[in-house]
Design a protein that fits this description.
The chain is α/β, with parallel strands linked by helices and 577 residues long. The strands form three sheets. A seven-stranded parallel sheet has the order 3-4-2-5-6-1-7, with helices on both faces. A seven-stranded parallel sheet has the order 10-11-9-12-13-8-14. Strands 16-17-15-18 form a four-stranded antiparallel sheet. The longest helix has 20 residues, at 377-396. The radius of gyration is 29 Å and the shape is globular.
Length: 577
């Protein structure tokens, strides 16, 4: 049946809904819409829908809800849970835009927004509520949200809610819904905990899985990677932005700190960019997204968590400033471009030690990510020159523009002067140093011989100062009975860390270096960084130059007798440690 559906009129929707769809410019339903909407309209069944992000899942459950809820009853008849505030707002806006002339009120309730406004909306009556699990649960506990008349319970982006730790909140919300309702679960992936949730709270659900084909990643997204040192990433980013006409994209970073740093640097260079992460207030986040959608800014620098649920149309680029930890996250990131028949570009910065991770992502994502060379300053400036020439040529060819008021000035400027010199002066005044190649710092070319193989020592050197990790100096070494495994094992036990938090361990005779994920490093410094009396701290932050033999000599002076906390229990104790 799905193959025969070529228009929304074939789905069994009302004329009022079809009119609203037409006004939005939608013509052909997506595969998940074609498969699910007739099922939800004709049968009172629970449904599990699996399709990747950007395939129209909101309309898939939103349209049947709008057809079935009773607009004359001002009670909550549909509850939609979304993982983030942004997605909750977007779902609410999308459903509102599809209701046409129906007097159906859709309320969005989420953390960070005013309670009083949400209280009023719920008190005055609404048929559809879209919210985040935590805020919905809070309203249920306060008694301000009544679900006794619920007809639809929807879990949107269920796998994202699972990843964000909402599984307990979701279960608690589901327990407070009536038995006589329909439960719909939509997700890009279906991990075991989600299926367990479905078995517990859904009644013989029908599974609708849209075949994504052999390509897990968008076919219209051109995927590229650049091999670059950590310290050269920002320079590479500016060149990519400058060489591309009308760059409009998201730059993904691993941490909030990196987000702020990259966003600030871009602003300092004159780019229209904003940083988006979890520390921002909700009004600030909404303002940034609004500016991006209105094209008042062209770049958002975001963490994965902050970007979840963001749906910005027509992105030209997605930049992986830091590679994601999981291939699924890579697919989710780059799926934000190359949509709706339009092409896009996904670019990843890869440090030499991240090649294994890149190959793993390629294998799981089933995609070809090709290597390219970072454009040099000459290429960037040449592209800028061509762009300026095209823009000015278009201006001169625009005959609708009235230039009569400026003819006298133009004549005076050209009187007795070389025309090329005059135009050059005007361009220099307007564009400043935009064509100055010296503004681009040199980027070191990374080569490791014909086959680009790196020694173990070279990989460790790259790992030592990887973004997101802090290099620590430990005033204990092999002479104290330590080796790589025992050092990491002891530190893990003391602060409750995992193996993944430790990298690039270098144990010398009387001291050691270890790179630790920054949050864990702070715990270690707090535990071992303070001492009593005149003893030096056992653990300190290492300077970047500490890896040199000369600095190793200096660091030997830090060694002191005593246990890990810097006491003076004797050499025997140290060796037992």
């Amino acid at each position: 049946m799905t193959e025969e559906i070529t228009s929304f009129a074939d789905l069994g929707l009302s004329e009022e809904t079809l009119k609203a769809i037409e006004q939005k410019g939608f013509t052909t339903p997506t595969p998940i819409q074609a498969a699910c909407i007739p099922l939800l309209l004709k049968n009172k069944v629970d449904v599990i829908g699996q399709a990747k992000t950007g395939t129209g899942k909101t309309a898939t459950f939103g349209l049947p809800i709008l057809e079935i809820v009773d607009s004359s009853e001002p009670v909550v008849q549909a509850l939609i849970l979304a993982p983030t505030r942004e997605l909750a707002v977007q779902d609410a806006e999308e459903i509102n835009s599809l209701k046409g002339e129906r007097r159906i009120h859709v309320a969005a309730i989420y953390g960070g927004a005013s309670y009083s406004l949400q209280f009023r909306e719920l008190r005055e009556g609404c048929q559809v509520v879209v919210g985040t699990p935590g805020r919905v649960l809070d309203h249920l506990k306060r008694g301000t949200l009544n679900l006794s008349n619920l007809k639809f319970m929807v879990l949107d982006e269920a796998d994202e809610m699972l990843d964000m730790g909402f599984i307990d909140d979701i279960e608690e919300v589901l327990k407070q819904t009536p038995d006589e309702k329909r439960t719909l679960c939509f997700s890009a992936t279906m991990p075991k905990p989600i299926m367990n949730l479905a078995e517990t709270f859904m009644k013989e659900p029908q599974v609708v899985k849209v075949d994504m084909g052999d390509e897990a990643t968008p076919a219209l997204t051109d995927q590229i990677y650049y091999e670059v040192r950590e310290v050269d990433k920002f320079e590479a980013l500016t060149r990519i932005i400058d060489i591309n006409d009308s760059f409009y994209g998201i730059v993904f970073c691993r941490t909030k700190v990196q987000c702020d740093e990259v966003g600030r640097k871009l602003q300092d260079r004159g780019y229209s960019a904003e940083a988006l992460h979890g520390d921002l207030s909700q009004p600030a986040r909404e303002a940034i997204l609004r500016k991006m959608k209105e094209h008042k800014i062209s770049i958002i620098v975001a963490t994965d968590v902050a970007a979840r649920g963001i749906d910005i149309q027509d992105l030209t680029h997605v930049i992986n400033y830091s590679l994601p930890e999981a291939p699924e996250e890579y697919i989710h990131r780059i799926g934000r471009t190359g949509r709706a028949g339009k092409s896009g570009t996904a670019i990843s910065f890869v440090t030499p030690r991240e090649f294994r991770k890149l190959h793993f992502i390629q294998r799981v994502a089933k995609s070809e990510i090709r290597k390219e060379q970072i454009p040099d300053s000459y290429q960037v400036v040449t592209a800028k020159k061509q762009r300026i020439l095209e823009q000015l040529t278009a201006l001169m060819n625009d005959t609708s523009r009235d230039t009569s008021a400026y003819q006298d000035i133009a004549h005076a400027m050209l009187d007795g002067r070389d025309a090329q010199e005059v135009v050059g002066s005007l361009l220099a005044f307007h564009y400043g140093n935009a064509l100055d190649e010296s503004q681009y710092r040199s980027i070191e070319t990374i080569t490791y011989g014909k086959h680009e193989k790196r020694s173990k020592r070279q990989e460790e050197r790259e790992a030592a100062y990887e973004e997101g990790f802090t290099r620590l100096f430990v005033a204990r070494g092999a002479g104290d009975g330590l080796d790589r495994d025992s050092l990491c094992e002891y530190l893990r036990e003391q602060v409750g860390a995992t193996k993944e938090d430790f990298r690039a361990v270098d144990v010398q005779n009387s001291f050691s270096f270890v790179s630790v994920s920054t949050p864990v490093a702070e715990k270690i410094l707090h535990l071992f960084g303070s001492t009593e009396g005149n003893a030096k701290p056992v653990v300190t932050k290492a300077r970047e130059e500490s890896a040199s033999p000369r600095s190793h000599k200096r660091e030997r002076k830090w060694r002191r007798d005593g246990d890990w906390r810097g006491g003076r229990s004797g050499r025997g104790d140290r060796r037992r440690r």
